[in-house]
Design goal:
Number of helices: 3
Organism: Rothia aerolata
CATH topology: Pnp Oxidase, Chain A
Number of strands: 7
Strand content: over 45%
Shape: elongated
CATH architecture: Roll
Radius of gyration: 17 Å
Protein name: Pyridoxamine 5'-phosphate oxidase family protein
Pfam family, one: Pyridox_ox_2
InterPro entries: Pyridox_Oxase-rel, Split_barrel_FMN-bd
Structural class: alpha+beta
CATH class: Mainly Beta
Oligomer: single chain
Strand order of the largest sheet: 2-3-4-7-6-5
């Protein structure tokens, strides 16, 4: 980079990261099971500072039950910049028959005939970056 020019990559403060998380509803969950790392797209909602989404028993659910440590990410792409927010935290699952404030979490509910479990992520670290494209 030339001297006197500004880096196209900047760190986002925590307030900006939280605002971006609240403004979106689709994110990616990163989890690991053994030596395998997986990424899953999820529909989510923020409620009382925590991230909630639904999943059915399987790989996502198994990795959450075993490791509980996860990363969650969202992106916001615009014509002149891309913002990325990553949340590192601990996941907790709720049995399918537990009712957790369904009115507030309705927008994250997945329409499925399968048994679905709610997962809650308690953030431990939130960070973000913005890449200027112009």
């Amino acid at each position: 980079m030339k001297e006197g020019t500004q880096s196209p990559l900047t760190e986002l403060d925590e307030q900006t990261c939280l605002r971006l998380l609240n403004n979106h509803s689709i994110g990616r969950l990163a989890s690991s099971l053994g030596n395998k790392i997986d990424l899953f797209a999820v529909r989510y909602v923020i409620h009382k500072g925590k991230i909630y989404f639904q999943t059915k028993p399987g790989d996502t659910f198994s990795s959450i039950v075993v490791t509980r440590k996860v990363a969650f990410e969202i992106d916001e792409a615009r014509f002149d910049s891309v913002k990325q927010v990553t949340v590192y935290g601990t996941a907790h699952w709720y049995p399918y028959d537990v009712d957790i404030d369904t009115e507030l979490l309705e927008e994250a509910r997945v329409a499925s005939a399968d048994v679905m479990h709610w997962v809650e992520i308690t953030p431990e670290k939130v960070s973000g970056r913005e890449l200027k494209l112009r």
